[in-house]
Amino acid sequence: VQSQPAHHLHGHRGKTSGRAVPVVVGLLASGLVRRKPFSKTCSSRRASGPVAERPLVDRLITSGVKALEAAELGRVRAMSEEPSAENGGWSGEPREWAEDSSITQRISVLSQSGPVAQLKQFIADTLAGDYDQAAIGSLIDRKIASNRVMMFSFSTCPFCLKAKALLREEYGLDVEVYECDLEKEGNAVRAELGRRTGRTSM
């Protein structure tokens, strides 16, 4: 948690650390694939005339990334905990993943820099698609400015669960939470936070 008048929290777990696809990595490293978010000053559409169809390679890569995301989410759901009295009604990824000694935590730490971090940002951008960067940036800024502590979270993330409990129960803080997996603009918010912080993990 940063010591600033308004905070935002961007957690410690890599949701896409295991999705390195050789073709995507190669294209990303060579600079052949560069996705930029939609903005009013630099739009993928012209003011007049027909809208150009996206290149075939771009569409194939987008479809591939989304398929990998769906497969990864399916794997995570299969491993997730079922709500019970023992786990406090938690329905999400295993809570032990958030422990410092867990393999998931160690992988997450290693994936926060270099080519893997670039790949994760590429995946976040691809899932977000074209979006108004100024509008999403303004949404993030308003959230941060209007709350003492602002957390950007995934509702099924054990790292986020642990952070919420720490702030609310141990520090007694009123935390405003934006669940990126439940909000319409969540993927765009995640991609934009990645650009600001260098982290796409929640």
Descriptive tags:
202 residues, mainly alpha, globular
Protein architecture, described:
- By secondary structure, the protein is mainly alpha-helical.
- It is 47% helix and 7% strand.
- It has seven helices and three strands.
- It has helices spanning 22-30, 56-79, 103-110, 114-128, 133-145, 158-170, 186-197, and strands spanning 7-10, 149-153, 175-179.
- Strands 1-2-3 form a three-stranded parallel beta sheet, sandwiched between helices.
- Strand 2 (149-153), helix 6 (158-170) and strand 3 form a beta-alpha-beta unit.
- Helix 1 crosses helix 4 (114-128) and helix 5 crosses helix 7.
- The longest helix is centred in the middle third of the chain and has 24 residues, at 56-79.
- It is globular, with a radius of gyration of 18 Å.
- It starts with 6 loop residues before the first strand and ends in a 5-residue tail after the last helix.
Strand-and-helix sequence, N→C?
EHHHHHEHEH
Helix content: 40-55%
Alpha-carbon distance between the two ends: 14 Å
- Count, helices: 7
Coarse shape: globular
Unreliably modeled segments: 1-8, 11-35, 37-48
**Main pleated sheet:** 3 strands, parallel
Strand content: 5-15%
Number of strand elements: 3
Give the mean pLDDT: 74
Radius of gyration: 18 Å
Oligomer: single chain
